[in-house]
Design a protein that fits this description.
single chain; alpha/beta; 9 strands; binds SN-glycerol-3-phosphate; binds magnesium ion
Length: about 240
């Protein structure tokens, strides 16, 4: 699979509230052609965009997302926390996100971010909705997750859609075996602290490396020079010459 060097992280997290429709519009205006976002399920099984387990940090509400219905989640303001100019921005449904990104020409990396113990139904429902609303004429989504069960379900349910194996800085001992088990198309690695030799080890599997989250121009170029295929950035404007 091919990805552009710059992927907008949670839309364009430095320029608009993360994981919002405004963020995807801003990313597109900046010239971004691929965005990443985090998807989970409401209590009543509507897939929507949110990074954390709770709504506290990125909305004006409080509580666990998995205990809130979609009707309750839609009431929340997901913009004011970042600035009054973003007041009124809502948590987007996954369906609305697909319906916005496709005509904007944005390729998508869907990060499965299930609420605790909801790996299977999250993967099933997210992939169902994606198959229904993501145009077959658009580039197929990249499906990524830190959760091994989510990736296994994705392999079973959408074998033809590329999987990105998300890795924390501390690699598990069996990362190579698991990457092969799920036939990962990409390794989505933490950019922090990577050196020429750590990148060489990661590259030894022959899979493209996508590095999150890089907001430093020089480090971004270092990663590129040493074989990283793409970086996730909060601020695509920093990398305007790399778009
Ligand atoms: O998918 C890349 C990156 O988003 C993974 O980390 O915690 O920002 O979702 P996180
Ligand atoms: Mg993410």
């Amino acid at each position: 699979m091919t990805v552009p060097f710059i992927i907008g992280h949670r839309g364009a997290k430095a320029l608009a509230p993360e994981n919002t429709l405004l963020g995807f519009k801003r990313a597109a205006i900046c010239g971004v052609t691929c965005v990443e976002f985090d998807v989970k399920l409401s209590k009543d099984n509507i897939p929507f965009l949110l990074h954390d387990d709770t709504v506290d940090r990125t909305t004006d509400g409080t509580g666990l997302a998995k205990e809130m219905t979609w009707a309750e989640l839609q009431e929340l303001d997901a913009g004011s926390w970042m600035g009054t100019q973003f007041a009124g921005e809502r948590l987007p449904s996954f369906e609305d996100t697909l319906k916005l990104c496709a005509p904007l020409g944005l390729a998508i990396n869907i990060e499965l971010k299930p609420c605790p113990d909801r790996d299977q139904e999250t993967t099933e429902i997210v992939l169902d909705v994606a198959k229904k609303f993501w145009p077959t004429t658009a580039p197929a989504p990249l499906i990524s997750s830190f959760e091994r069960e989510s990736l296994r379900h994705a392999q079973r349910l959408a074998p033809d859609w590329a999987r990105g194996y998300l890795l924390e800085s501390n690699l598990p001992n069996d990362w190579k075996e698991f990457a092969e088990e799920i036939d990962a198309a990409t390794l989505n690695i933490n950019q922090a602290g990577q050196t020429e030799s750590s990148l060489a080890d990661l590259k030894s599997l022959g899979k493209p490396l996508l590095a999150y989250t890089c907001n430093d121009y020089k480090h971004g170029l270092f990663l590129k020079q040493h074989g990283v295929s793409a970086i996730f950035t909060d601020n695509p404007l920093l990398f305007a010459d790399q778009l």
